[in-house]
Amino acid sequence: MQLKRILSSLNPKHKVFILGSAVVDLVLSVNRLPKSGEDISAAFQGGKVGGCAFNVADVLTKLNLPCYTYFPVGEGMFSQIVKQEFIKRSLEVSQVCGCGDNGWNLSIVEPNGERTFITMSGLECRMQKQWFDKFCLSDFDYFYLSGYQAEGENGDVMLEILKRKRKDSFLVFDPGPRSEFIPAEKLHSFEELNCIYTINAKEACILSGKDYPDEAALELCKRTGNPAVITDGAKGAYLACNNQVSLIPGASVKVADTIGSGDAHTGGFISGLMCDLALEDAVKLANYTAAYVTAHQGAACAPTADQMLAFFTETL
Known about the structure:
14 strands; alpha/beta
């Protein structure tokens, strides 16, 4: 089984730094999204700590791959939930005083698993340069950043921070649904940081101006001079590299919801990169990881290697 071969090859060779957010996801399930002005009923599925960067780090942690992280924890109701989750997971609590609460998301899930978000940003979108002074960023080979931290004034701070990294280190960048809110000039600045794009098909087409995900993958690859990975649901993911693009097939699973699926894919891809896997194998690992999370409810539910192997041995 190719998954077993890939998982047995996970031996970290590069250092990873994940910077971004830990927020609280409040999940509602609905039969359909409401129309403007309409009142519908929903079922509350619970609250859980998530956030793009936290979800990505969850994958590496569950696969026993070391990574450095910075998720600021503020002061307030949601910060307390985040702090308690960090303590439960034995994660470092980077407490920041006087800068407000952590953010939260209202995640609305339809019967087909598709999710719609309403986001209330917190201090994770008000980063300060001095928070990163304790890190020697030139030590790291791969960095991760989400579009939620790349827009507005916070994006300017992130650019200043990431300019401290080595020029030969890579920025794995998932602008997500925020790319249309990030000016083209700023996106170009991120692309100049040795950027590797990882993003879903719909968002990639908007970002690239192309009609199809394979075309979008080639365009984003051309912009950065690095590989680009475009996810396309159960179909798998398009990998563009050296002016060529291929579809790496995904794994078919019963959808619970898609909260955190894209982040899990990015986490799986970074796991492969830091272990020097072939690009195709890194994307295959990402596809399996995302499929597992899609089959389970909520974010930050990445599997251990044994859990992933057992699940797909039974499923496939």
